[in-house]
């Protein structure tokens, strides 16, 4: 059995001490008291069974929350086992509050590095501007952190009973009816449940199945029938632990994220460098530079995969970095398996549910990777949905539909705002010429109250309603208590 967090004791003292070292109060000194609700704990019996397709961050968070809620579930994933490819995601106070409530905060902080600032540079390394992010801890309760993705998945998996997860199950087909839902996998396996949640990422097969049904019934909005908006390719890699004498930024307690925007051989590119935990550095390049005329068709078509990266690494190895070395040095210190190619796509789907099926995470809202929203919003979806499923006492289709409608209504507005922030950043980096330079100079030299006005709007910091609350450590209150 996975341990219940209701009985786990988490020592919170000194959580950020290795980062703060006497700078400010530790995370244990909370700012405002939490809500005064009376937690009910796990349900004595599960009124229905949930089938989750996808063991990414969203699916695993959903599984772990259902475990705490006492709701029966099973997770299927097409991979042969837990993820091992090194990559990172971003987490902020928006999700770290629920992570703390679930007793996972200390362990998450061991695989995280807080961000101190984001510096924008030109290709000659001169500074365009700098955004300080240290204040986020006081305002929203936690620093913005770069978290190791595979380790986070493994942490969530360690809290999920083994019998609740099945690997090597690629779901191909869904049959949904009045009394239940059935998924058929590529190896012939069939799984049945009362509710199906597609947490299977940007190219979700659950979404495709759902949309096929809706199209046949002439119920699919036109915009949902259109493909994901693909703009360009990106390549993301993570180095092995670096020698901190040679690369002091890799060993620093805080991560100074550097972005270089410019042209190389006439091709526009954006280079990101983010020191992560374990003295590693995440690097990524996006832009025209990555689209050689002879690029492999696979390079255009696949999601997070190692296809065709070798040819592309050759195109970017001479780019300058603020570490005083060319990017090729960092590529050379990155294991081949930890370099992945990513399609820069974004889309906010209108349809998130139908019948007994609903979607969460990138299956219903795909963000560009550098927006830092993908994992955060998938976790927030999971928390919101479990709070609503907890209140659902029977396996009746009309009640399930009402629950899904409430989930969509609660999440929709925040996601719309998150998209506008993400699209703004994306356009800012892509914008070329003097206009682009001017826009970036203005954005990276703005007073913090201007940047706050957009980040304030996506603050929700929800809790799981059925578990004991934890304090809201942020000084800036949020309008919605539980989403
Ligand atoms: C290998 C990998 C590396 C990533 N690296 C980064 C990064 O560097 N930066 C960043 O910002 N974001 C990255 N992401 C994306 C980030 O993890 C997501 O934005 C975020 O976690 C929310 O995603 P999700 O849970 O909705 O879907 P995902 O994390 O994409 O998980 C979807 C899961 O569904 C499974 N799946 C897909 N189709 C099927 C099917 N038919 N049947 C069964 N299972 C299926 C997949 O194997 C996967 O485990 C990465 C994702 C992956 C998969």
TrEMBL record:
Source organism, top-level taxon = Eukaryota
- Regions of biased composition (Low complexity) lie at 1-36
Xref: InterPro entries = FAD-bd (IPR002938), FAD/NAD-bd_sf (IPR036188), FAD_mOase_fung (IPR050562)
Q: Which UniProt keywords apply?
A: FAD, Flavoprotein, Oxidoreductase
Q: Which Gene3D superfamilies match?
A: FAD/NAD(P)-binding domain
* Presence of the UniProt keyword Oxidoreductase in the record: yes
The annotated region (Disordered) lies at 1-41
A Pfam family annotated for this UniProt entry: FAD_binding_3
Q: Which family does it belong to?
A: Belongs to the paxM FAD-dependent monooxygenase family.
Q: Which PANTHER family match?
A: FAD-BINDING DOMAIN-CONTAINING PROTEIN-RELATED, FAD-DEPENDENT MONOOXYGENASE ASQG-RELATED
Q: What is the name of this protein?
A: FAD-binding domain-containing protein
- Organism equals Podila minutissima
């Amino acid at each position: 059995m996975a341990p219940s967090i209701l009985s786990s004791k988490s020592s919170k003292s000194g959580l950020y001490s290795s980062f703060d070292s006497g700078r400010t109060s530790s995370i244990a000194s909370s700012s405002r008291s939490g809500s005064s609700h009376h937690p009910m704990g796990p349900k004595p019996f599960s009124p229905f069974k949930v089938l989750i397709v996808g063991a990414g961050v969203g699916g695993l968070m959903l599984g772990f929350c259902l475990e705490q809620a006492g709701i029966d579930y099973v997770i299927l994933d097409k991979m042969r086992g837990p993820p091992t490819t090194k990559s990172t995601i971003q987490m902020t106070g928006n999700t770290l509050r629920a992570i703390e409530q679930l007793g996972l905060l200390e362990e998450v902080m061991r695989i995280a590095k807080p961000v101190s600032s984001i510096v924008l540079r030109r290709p000659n390394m001169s500074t365009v501007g700098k955004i300080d992010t240290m204040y986020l801890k006081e305002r929203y309760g936690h620093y913005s952190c770069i978290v190791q993705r595979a380790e986070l998945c493994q942490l969530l998996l360690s809290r999920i009973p083994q019998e609740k997860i099945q690997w090597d199950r690629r779901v191909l087909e869904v049959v949904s009816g009045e009394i239940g839902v059935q998924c058929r996998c590529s190896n012939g396996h069939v799984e049945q449940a009362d509710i199906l949640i597609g947490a299977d990422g940007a190219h979700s097969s659950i979404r495709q199945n759902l949309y096929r049904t809706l199209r046949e019934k002439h119920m699919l909005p036109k915009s949902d029938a259109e493909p994901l908006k693909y703009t360009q390719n990106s390549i993301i890699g993570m180095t092995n632990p670096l020698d901190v004498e040679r690369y002091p930024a890799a060993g620093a307690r805080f991560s100074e994220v550097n972005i270089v925007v410019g042209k190389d051989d006439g091709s526009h590119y954006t280079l990101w460098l983010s020191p992560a935990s374990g003295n590693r550095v995440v690097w990524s390049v996006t832009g025209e530079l990555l689209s050689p005329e002879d690029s492999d068709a696979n390079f255009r078509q696949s999601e997070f995969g190692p296809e065709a990266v070798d040819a592309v690494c050759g195109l970017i190895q001479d780019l300058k970095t603020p570490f005083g070395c060319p990017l090729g040095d960092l590529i050379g210190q990155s294991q081949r398996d930890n370099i992945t190619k990513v399609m820069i796509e974004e889309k906010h789907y209108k349809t998130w549910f139908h019948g007994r099926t609903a979607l969460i995470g990138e299956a219903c809202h795909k963000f560009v990777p550098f927006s830092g929203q993908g994992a955060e919003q998938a976790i927030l979806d999971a928390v919101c949905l479990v709070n609503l499923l907890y209140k659902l006492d029977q396996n009746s289709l009309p009640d399930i539909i009402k629950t899904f409608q409430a989930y969509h209504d609660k999440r929709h507005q925040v996601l719309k705002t998150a998209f506008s922030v993400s699209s703004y950043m994306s356009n800012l980096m892509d914008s070329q010429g003097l206009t682009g330079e001017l826009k970036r100079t203005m954005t990276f030299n703005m007073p913090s109250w201007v940047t706050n006005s957009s980040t304030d709007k996506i603050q929700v910091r929800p809790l799981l309603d059925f578990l004991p609350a934890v304090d809201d450590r942020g000084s800036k209150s949020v309008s919605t208590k539980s989403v």
